[in-house]
Amino acid sequence: xxxxxxxxxxxxxVYVSGARIPTARAHGLQIMLMCAAFVxxxxxxxxxxxxxxxxxxxxxxxxxxxxxxxxxxxxxxxDLIGRARGFYAAAFMLDVIAFIARLLLAxxxxxxxxxxxxxxxxxxxxxxxxxxxxxxxxxxxxxxxLFRRALARARLVxxxxxxxxxxxxxxxxxxxxxxxxxxxxxxxxxxxxxxQADARRRLGLPLDKKIALYVGxxxxxxxxxxLFAAAAQLPADTMAxxxxxxxxQVAALSARYPRVRFLGSRPYHELADNMAAAxxxxxxxxxxxxxxxxxxxxxxxxxxMTSGKPIVASDLPSIREVLGDDxxxxxxxxxxxxxxxxxxxxxxxxxxxKRAQRAQELVATHTWDARAxxxxxxxxxxxx
Length: 384
Hints:
2 domains
């Protein structure tokens, strides 16, 4: 007789996150999309988050354009980081401790519930005897003491790259309790983008330039400094464009890098149309940080892959797990000249569409539904 799956036996999944929902940062989108995918996998889902000041005031389901198929429970908690003036590390730690204490009091999960999280302190607030604890790892802290003890409480650990899986195993997590599940994409969100001309008119971009576009946070480990330096080495007919960044960042960087057009942050639901404005999409991640070189699984990467546009990306293990030389133009990381050359080569290559098409073929297997189903299947295997 076949054992019932986690979905078939009517189990409930409680996704616990310390994130501010909604947020303009990518982790909020990833959390919401995974909750929706778990529902489609057959689970009953509740997302539990702290009730903090909402920088993005819009309803989360409306903001992310996600159907209201799961519930969101907000727990009263501190919000020091949202008001801190310096001492951010201390404010963050106090917020985390307050949220964990609130979880202990609230009893957010019932016996037998699956509890899913990507903040390892959450594992200390729940019982591995009463709950099925699942931890999704996005980074490995330098100080391992608490992290290793938290992981020992998890029934299943989801690593977003193979390199992360190897490093988790080196910390003592049994290989049988780790699965690799890169991030993913909701293909339907990218099915009908604007024309290039319409997208450029909407964004105020020139029609007569070649455009190399980066979408995402402006941050050292994201490699954006390398892109800014590379922009000065691009031909006069090629413009580097950045979508992302805080208003103060955008103002300062616009003055410092006149060869880059900074458009600021744009909502997620515009992403397919915004990518349509590009001739090439850029993923310039730095190789100087483990989180970038070994642990990241960028949401923008999978979005880029849907676009039919050539991708120029840093040659890093985390990127090579998804893209190869047949699906992208892979260049040395942290090297502005190499990045500029890669962009120019992609724009000049009459066969660039073949690599873009290969990326589209590959991304078809990287869906949120497939990812959620993989987690549910792994839990089922453990229960047999």
